[in-house]
From TrEMBL:
This is PadR family transcriptional regulator. The lineage of its organism: Bacteria, Bacillati, Bacillota, Bacilli, Bacillales.
Length: 40
């Protein structure tokens, strides 16, 4: 496997990981807002 192809695979994995991380942060942020509203 060439180095260039290997780098592309790593970049794809990082991209997917960042995407999942951002989505989970947004989800957690929304959940926290709903939770604090419920407490009040």
């Amino acid at each position: 496997m060439s180095k260039r192809r290997y780098m592309k695979i790593i970049a794809d994995i990082i991209g997917v990981t960042v995407d999942i991380f951002e989505k989970s942060l947004i989800y957690l942020g929304r959940y926290r807002v709903e939770y604090t509203r419920a407490e009040i």
